[in-house]
Design goal:
It is built from ten helices and ten strands. By secondary structure, it is an alpha/beta fold. Helix 4 packs across helix 5 and helix 9 packs parallel to helix 10.
C-alpha cells in the first residue's frame, strides 16, 4: 500500500508530498510508521478496558495541531520546539505485529490505535501481519476524525470499533485551536462514514468522544445537537471533562479547568437532547494523569502497564 504515500492525500490536508522519498507534510512523518509507546491502558471507556485493559498503541505524528494536545510530545513536538527529537521509533509490519502479540500476551482486551490517520497504509500492513500471527483481538480506531472517507474505507476490513473525536462544529474554533478550519465538515462526514461501515458489517461499534472546552459551552451544545440529530440511533456518546491546560503549551487555549457549573450545564443538555446511552467522565480536575512519553511508562502505574517503548531500545 506504499503508493498512497507517493502523493499523499491520506487526510483532508492533501499535502501531496512524496513521503516515500522522505518528505513530510503537516503530520511531520515520512512513510515510515513510528510508534511512541504501547501500553495496557485503563483510562478508556469501561467496556473498552474490561478486566485486562486496552492494548493501546500511540502513533507518532498527527494531522491536527491541537494547541492543548495531551500527547504533544509525540504528536507535534519536534527538535525545534523541544530541544530533543520527538519520541518514537520506526517499526516494520512484522515489528508492529510483535507489539500486538506482546499486548495480547499481557492480557489486552483489544488493540487500540491512537492518532493513526496519517499512517493508515502502514498500519493496515501491520494489522494484516498481526492477524497472520494469530492476534484475534478487536481493533479500535482512536482518532480525531480529521479523515477522508476514502482513507477510512481502507480500514473497513481491519477495524471493529471506531472511537472518533467530534471536537467542534465551529470553524473559527477549529482554526484557532486545531489549525484546521475545515475540521467540522471533515469530521462530521468521517463519523457518518464510520457509522455506515459499522452498520454494513453488523458487528462493529462507533463511540463518539467530545471534550468540553472551558468557556466554549455553545460549541459543545452544537456538537450534542448534531449527535442527537445524526448519530444517536447508531453510535454512543462519550462526554469528556478532562480538559487540562498544558504547561508552556497552547497559550491561546483556555488556561483553566472546566468549572462545576459548566459541567452541570452540559449534563442537563444531555436530557434536553434525549441522549441517554453512552459515557460521561466524572467531574475531576488535575494534571496527574498527563502522559510523559520520554518515560518507558508514559502514564502512572495506576493507569497503565508499559509493554513496548522506544525509551527501552
Amino acid at each position: 500500500m506504499n503508493n498512497y504515500y507517493e502523493l499523499c492525500r491520506l487526510c483532508p490536508r492533501n499535502c501531496e508530498v512524496n513521503r516515500l522519498a522522505g518528505l513530510t507534510g503537516f503530520c511531520g512523518e515520512t512513510a515510515c510508521l513510528r510508534i511512541g509507546a504501547a501500553v495496557i491502558h485503563r483510562g478508556e471507556e469501561p467496556p473498552l478496558v474490561g478486566t485486562g485493559g486496552s492494548g493501546t498503541i500511540f502513533i507518532s505524528g498527527c494531522n491536527l495541531g491541537c494547541v492543548f494536545c495531551q500527547n504533544y510530545q509525540i504528536s507535534r513536538c519536534t527538535g525545534a520546539d523541544s530541544g530533543m527529537p520527538r519520541p518514537g521509533k520506526a517499526v516494520s509490519a512484522g515489528e508492529f505485529a510483535d507489539i500486538c502479540i506482546a499486548l495480547r500476551d499481557t492480557g489486552a482486551e483489544n488493540i487500540n490505535i491512537v492518532t493513526g490517520s496519517h499512517a493508515v497504509p502502514a498500519i493496515i500492513d501491520g494489522l494484516i501481519a498481526a492477524r497472520k500471527a494469530e492476534v484475534r483481538l478487536p481493533v479500535l480506531w482512536n482518532s480525531s476524525a480529521y479523515e477522508t472517507c476514502d482513507t477510512l474505507y481502507l480500514l473497513k476490513d481491519h477495524v471493529d470499533i471506531y472511537l472518533p473525536d467530534l471536537k467542534t462544529l465551529d470553524s473559527s474554533i477549529a482554526a484557532k485551536f486545531f489549525n484546521a478550519p475545515d475540521y467540522p465538515a471533515a469530521a462530521a462526514a468521517a463519523i457518518l462514514k464510520m457509522i455506515e461501515m459499522v452498520e454494513c458489517s453488523r458487528n462493529g461499534k462507533v463511540i463518539v468522544r467530545h471534550l468540553i472546552l472551558p468557556g466554549y459551552l455553545e460549541s459543545t451544545r452544537s456538537v450534542l445537537r448534531w449527535f442527537a440529530d445524526n448519530a444517536k440511533q447508531s453510535a454512543l456518546l462519550s462526554l469528556m471533562t478532562q480538559y487540562t491546560p498544558i504547561p508552556n503549551r497552547g497559550m491561546t487555549a483556555p488556561r483553566r479547568f472546566l468549572s462545576k457549573e459548566e459541567y452541570e450545564t452540559v449534563i442537563g443538555w444531555l436530557d434536553d437532547f434525549g441522549i441517554e446511552e453512552g459515557f460521561c467522565q466524572e467531574f475531576v480536575t488535575g494534571s496527574e494523569w498527563l502522559p510523559d512519553f520520554t518515560r518507558a511508562n508514559p502514564f502512572s502505574s495506576a493507569l497503565s502497564v508499559p509493554v513496548w517503548s522506544p525509551a527501552e531500545l
